[in-house]
Amino acid sequence: MGRDGSGLIVTPDTHTYEQNFSVTFRYPVVFTSGLFDPANPVLADTLSRQEPGKRHRCIVFLDDGLFAACPAISDDIVAYAAHHGDRIDLVAKPFPVPGGERIKVDLHFVEQIQQTLFDHHIDRHSYVLAIGGGAVLDAVGLVSTTTHRGVRHIRVPTTVLSQNDSGVGVKNGVNLNGVKNFVGTFAPPFAVLNDLDFVEGLPDREKIAGMAEAVKVALIRDGAFFEWLERHCDDLVVFERAAMSHMIRRCAELHMIQIAKGGDPFETGSARPLDFGHWAAHRLETMTRYHLRHGEAVAIGIALDTRYSVLAGMLTPGTEVRVACLLEQLGFRLWHPALDKRNAEDGHVVIDGLREFQEHLGGELTITLLEDVGVGVEVHEMDHALIAGAIDWLRDRAAG
């Protein structure tokens, strides 16, 4: 009996082997238009990228909100598959699924999607397409990554928020017991196919909501992009196509750079740098029962944390006004009465979001704040009194 190099007591019949290997993940993120136009080969080429010359089994889940707004889309997908029948074997007409947070708050929908894959004998060489907003991508992605330990999943984001942020990432998940994304996986998709035409058909409120993530990632990673957003604010407000296209693509690119080069794509540590403004946003979403869109809550969270950064002496005073002005000009309201809700100890209920944010990853509380426009910095504690001061500032600004 003796001690090994780590100080552990071992017996002669104890043997330790260290397994060590790495896996490279690659997936295309395509920006196009007319994705389901038979003349557009992007989808067919994507299905064939690993196994050319083969006919690929494919099943499609479609956001019911998109289906209601564009009832022809199901027939368009069927027609596209028929036109490319030498490469695509569509096993059934697209299946509508609930859009928005509805699909994430009830595990019944996850089970229903899983049953559909089982009934149609979807295997690991088949493809599961999710067409819709971020919530639909999250839920269908969760099912795809847990069926047969991973079926090839293709995301077709149809909202600004899902094209510029969640759609290009590696997360899948649904809510449980009121906790956002409590059940989920880290698994990259097989491909992400973005069609700007879907964005143009969105209600104005949905277009605006997705812009919050562009402001967020510009503030923490790219000051020049933030300045671009300021210069092109008037174009974005009227949803000018070229401006929207650039905004979505640059935002997606910055998210992809962080995921690929940030050193922790599967969030094994305590930091969540892409979640600037999100600790409060997630709490506000649940407090309002998702009447606040995710992007709307993120805009409030961004303004709150930017003002906090000033109050904490980290950020030059006046920067919070600059950030708030851009968000307001884009169409966001930076106040919601939920911010004033108090608990039994007369504390702000929204501050519970800090605890929930920490619990999601575990480890040390790690919050991204601002040191400058384009420069995020991580802190491990937040002063509740300063948070209250930031809330007061938002209330006074709204009262105007």
Automatic annotation (TrEMBL):
Organism: Microbaculum marinisediminis
Matching PANTHER family: 3-DEHYDROQUINATE SYNTHASE, 3-DEHYDROQUINATE SYNTHASE, CHLOROPLASTIC
InterPro entries tied to this protein: Dehydroquinate_synthase, DHQS/DOIS_N, DHQS_C
Keyword Amino-acid biosynthesis annotated: yes
Every 3-dehydroquinate synthase N-terminal domain range: 96-207
Domain 3-dehydroquinate synthase C-terminal: 210-340
BP terms from Gene Ontology: amino acid biosynthetic process; aromatic amino acid family biosynthetic process
Domain of life: Bacteria
UniProt GO MF annotations: 3-dehydroquinate synthase activity
Lineage, broadest ranks: Bacteria, Pseudomonadati, Pseudomonadota, Alphaproteobacteria, Hyphomicrobiales
Signal sequence interval, chain numbering: none
Alphabetical keyword list: Amino-acid biosynthesis, Aromatic amino acid biosynthesis, Lyase, NAD
Protein name per UniProt: 3-dehydroquinate synthase
Names of the cofactor(s): NAD(+)
Database matches in NCBIfam families: PRK06203.1
EC numbers on record: 4.2.3.4
